[in-house]
Amino acid sequence: MKVDRLDGMVRGWFVGAFEPTVLHTTDVEVGVKRYPAGVRESAHVHKIATEITVILEGTAEMNGRTLTAGDIVTVEPGEVADFHTLTPVTTVVVKHPGAPDDKYLVEPAR
Question: Model pTM greater than 0.85?
């Protein structure tokens, strides 16, 4: 048996094509992400991967929609998504397939 620590992984990602990882694969990426209140991630899109986010704890907004513990959000390739934490938030995120460098920032409308 091998034991690793989540805080030793890259920003909470523990399965995927990066180091360190507990399972090196390009099939999928899995991470547990912890955020304080007030964090904003810029709008972005994935061209290849589907991203599934489970809100485990807290309240967040994605694309203006309020999400709470138990909500599962699926963002398909080509869909734009942003993220804003209203309280401290813990998520589990799955990206399929694992696609390094498949995150493209979207310029805000002017």
Answer: yes
